[in-house]
Amino acid sequence: MSTASKHIEYPPLEGSARMWGTIALSAATFMNVLDSSIANVSLPAIAGDLGVSPNQGTWVITSFGVANAIAVPLTGWLSQRFGQVRLFVMSVLLFVLASWLCGLAPNMATLIAFRILQGFVAGPMIPLSQSLLLSSYPKALAGTAMAMWGMTTLVAPVMGPLLGGWITDNISWPWIFYINIPIGLLAALASWQLYRKRESATQKLPIDTVGLSLLVIWVGALQIMLDKGKELDWFHSGEVIVLGIVALVGFLIFVAWELTEKHPVVDLTLFKRRNFWSGTLAISVGYGLFFGNVVLLPLWLQQYMGYTSTEAGFVLAPVGLMAILFSPVVGKNVGRVDPRYFATFAFIVFALVLWMRSNFNTQADEATILVPTIIQGVSMAFFFIPLLSIILSGLPPDRIPAASGLSNFVRITAGAFGTSIVTTVWQDRAALHHAQLAEAINTGNSAATGALAGMQATGMSYEQALLSVNRLIDQQAYMLAASDVFLASAGIFLLLVPLVWLARPVRAQAGGAGADAASAAH
Predict the structure, then answer these.
(1) CA–CA separation, 160 and 314 (whole Å)
(2) Could you read off the pLDDT of 438-448 as tens digits, one per residue?
(3) How far apart are CA 262 and CA 269, in angstroms?
(4) Alpha helix positions (H), 137-172
(5) Mean pLDDT of all residues in 338-344
(6) In whole angstroms, what is the distance from residue 291 CA to residue 280 CA?
(7) pLDDT by residue (tens digit) across 467-516?
(8) Nearest Cα to 349, choosing from 395, 289, 401?
(9) Dist. CA 86–CA 468, nearest whole Å
(10) Largest Cα–Cα distance of the chain, in whole Å?
């Protein structure tokens, strides 16, 4: 993600050194991407064990995402200050340490603090694994190198739910973090052995500490507001109002500062480019919707459909299968076909998948729930690379790292925000549906009185029968609320299609935007 002014060109690695280098860098990337999906199916277990509601458990996801997003724009400065190899190895080792601490966390507050640390130190890992991998291969094989790297980032979301579910049910949730320790230590050791003599040039550069502090303040305040709002009844709470004001004022000062700073932490002038802002907005809103729904589905399955963590993981795992099949096709053709067509197709398929989910009911079997998950992989393949080629199109090579970093920051932040917004809307809609359904349970309703009488005939007391009926109402209310979220998300995906067409056509250029997109895709 960085290009130091005194760039050192090393010859490509050869033979077994290149193979082991690819394995080490891919293992570190795999571990990082795995950690963004492995906790999803474990949320109810973590929340139950630490004595909080599953909704509060989503902080485990959002805290990692926000910290990770904030660290991404810093990668360029850090790699020029310390060198790419040193920074990468240190990032992996600190990730291992943070993972170990997450597993040891005795309560939710400690776990969130360690997840913030884990997300922050993970920031440089993905962009640096890309640049080190590209330096290991001759230029003619750059596409092959990125395709192998891309496979890693697509296999991890398949493995995450399966592994997370199995570990939670058969061992205990802390092991979803402990499994990073051997992988990370081996990846760090192998990377250091192979790359330490291939260190990038370093130079002392000023860092925009004011800009970074403002970034942390406004993003942090906004995320806490989104996470705590549902507990504190939103703007009826003084705490939420204060957080909202801090986020807004912090954001406005941040924008003013970054536009006038000589070495800004993020280059906001990129938003003057139509393709950059339209592509970044489309990929960020799309990713926020996608990620929010990916967190919602296992929560609903485990809390209201009686699924174990393993079963929920099995239903979610195939999401990457179609992506693995179609991604190479998209990568090869993104330079030949207008990427706006690919992105439009992705949004239509996402909308179809969410529309299918909005038709689920409480009798939905595993096969019914699996089908949209498998189809979703198709939209994932057509989503990232085409939109990134739009975002990076027409940029000079020296601005591509800044553009990739900024678009990744906005996208990852949107993922964390999307999780909070989707789970909040789900809760609110469920409360509304519960109230409407409960109104029907009265002495004038023959079906309700008949059901209560039937339950009492089996030996239940009147109170126990009412509790059973309430559980059924809960199940229906949360099912209807999930349908509302799925349907609204499908509609928003369709509304993103015109946004893509605001971008100018991307000119096909050999090794241009398409290649840059492939290298910046995750």
Answers:
(1) 10
(2) 776 766 666 66
(3) 12
(4) 142-170
(5) 87
(6) 16
(7) 777 777 888 888 899 999 999 999 999 999 998 888 887 765 434 444 44
(8) 289
(9) 59
(10) 84
